[in-house]
Amino acid sequence: MSATISLMVVFLMLGMLVCQLTIYRHRQKEMYKHDRVLFPFCQLRRDVIRFLHENVVERQGAVSKEERESVRRLLDIIDLTIGNYNENKTVMFNLRTVMKNLKIYRSASEASLQVPDHPRIKEFHSEFRLLLVKAFFAYTPLIKSEFKLYLVVWVYRAVKREGATTEALIKDAAKARQDARHYGLTASPVV
User: By the 8 A CB rule, do 132 and 101 touch?
Assistant: First the structure.
């Protein structure tokens, strides 16, 4: 009796350990995803601040006022994205939130699109857009699964439709052979 109880306690403790390890591993994956997505935004913010410091403080007049304002607006948008990161990432399908942030970004960047061409500023904007897309796909895994599901359904329907067409052709050919035999016609090869 005591051996049974001891064995049950050992299995219970083993089960609790497995649950804790599973929770720990899940949390570790979430932290990895968090770091993989958030840190590039932080690095972009560091690069933008370094750009502003180098071109405005150290070398006054290296960039025009419009370019400086454009970079400042981009820095505000990056700060907003990083600040709202924890609320945005918990939504499974956060397409509305991403669209809202993209509208904010687009309205703020419209003025910056009129800025004279500066390769570094354009690079900051393109990197920010790329990071937004990566973050969106990192935290909406069902979107990727949905695309795959649509592809599977499309292939299934195409195969089913093609199979039905093939069956109809086979039935038509069998009927034609039967009619030919009925009327005493022989099938001669066409030369």
Answer: yes
